[in-house]
Design a protein that fits this description.
The chain is built from nine helices and 17 strands. By secondary structure, the protein is an alpha+beta fold. The chain folds into three domains: 115 residues, 3-Layer(aba) Sandwich (Rossmann fold); 112 residues, ATP-grasp fold, B domain (D-amino Acid Aminotransferase, Chain A, domain 1); 60 residues, 2-Layer Sandwich (Dna Ligase, domain 1), CATH 3.30.1490. A hairpin with a 5-residue loop joins β16 and β17. InterPro entries: ATP-grasp, ATP-grasp_RimK-type, Rp_bS6_RimK/Lys_biosynth_LsyX.
């Protein structure tokens, strides 16, 4: 799908990668177009490797050149092999000089919650203690040792799906009933105030806080997709600094960071999302998230002083 820009061929060429043309993709198409960019939209599954091509890739809409930048909105679901190949495409785009946001390494660091926890801990960022093991016996041993509620999360989950609060060994599913045979367990840090749970979503773009919201729910799962309410969030320097640091720790440049205060009042980073949605955030903050996303990526393109190389130039290099 191509949405031509109304101006000259010198317009920056942006490849919007998305698993579908949803509300967010439509907002991004409009935002990039409003800023003079030429947009092509493609599913990541449609980009292939072609070792006979000058740049080694077969990109729909780019027979003779490369895009100036890739804006990754969402990845298509698929088998392990398909997802591995698609991440390989993102890696390849970065290696041939295309700006990819977020790039494959950041996506890998965020989509695997155990990798996120590892990187947060390595960076000294406060986050609930987490474990990732592959047997129920080991998960039960950890649960008994910790003697506190823990949250069992799908390693590759999103939008609050598949979360389970584990209070005892009896709550642990069988290995065949887990997501991929992995037990990712995180200390439960939620606190109910007046019968409601809350956390904070901070959106970081280009190294700064672009928007924030408070999410409240009668239940302990506070994702908007699970029915939580999106509320305005006043500035909080501690949360904002942690969100920026967490985004840097995973190597991202556009991330949604979830935080809360535990029962002792300490700020904790719960998760980092490299492909965040923003419907509730836009409503709560009043910010045009797609416009921020587009503007920041185009500033990055302009800062490199490059335009996509032609196939002839690539072949000669």
């Amino acid at each position: 799908m191509q949405i031509p820009a109304p101006q000259t061929a010198k317009a920056p060429r942006i490849l919007l990668v998305t698993a579908g043309i949803d509300r967010h993709a439509r907002e991004l198409i409009r935002a990039f177009g409003d800023r003079g960019a030429e947009i092509r939209v493609v599913e990541l599954a449609a980009i292939g490797f072609d070792t006979g091509a000058p740049h080694g890739l077969a990109i729909p809409g780019f027979p003779d050149a490369l895009p100036d930048a890739v804006c990754l909105r969402t990845m298509d679901a698929g088998s392990f092999e398909q997802v591995t190949r698609r991440l390989g495409v993102l890696h390849a785009l970065s290696r041939v000089g295309v700006i990819v946001s977020n790039d494959a390494r950041a996506v890998e660091n965020c989509v695997d919650k155990s990798a996120t926890s590892f990187l947060l801990a390595r960076a000294g960022i406060p986050s609930p203690r987490s474990y990732a093991v592959e047997t129920r016996a080991e998960a039960a041993r950890l649960l008994a040792r910790e003697a506190r509620p823990m949250v069992l999360k799908p390693l590759f989950g999103a939008q609050g799906k598949g979360l389970k609060l584990i209070a005892s060994e009896a709550d642990l599913p069988l290995e065949a009933e887990t997501a991929g045979g992995v037990y990712y367990l995180q200390h439960f840090a939620g606190v109910a105030t007046n019968g409601r749970f809350a956390d904070i979503r901070v959106l970081v773009s280009a190294g700064r806080v672009a928007a924030a919201m408070r999410r409240e729910s009668a239940g302990w799962i506070t994702n908007i997709k699970q029915g939580a309410e999106a509320l305005p969030m006043p500035p909080d320097p501690e949360f904002e600094a942690l969100a920026i640091a967490a985004t840097e720790a995973v190597g991202g440049d556009f991330c949604g960071v979830d935080l809360l205060r535990d029962e002792a009042g300490r700020a904790q980073v719960i998760e980092v999302n490299s492909m965040p949605a923003w419907t509730g955030l836009k409503r709560a903050s009043g910010q045009d998230i797609a416009a921020i996303r587009a503007a920041d990526l185009l500033v990055r393109v302009a800062a490199t002083g490059r335009r996509a190389a032609t196939a002839d130039a690539l072949a000669a290099s």
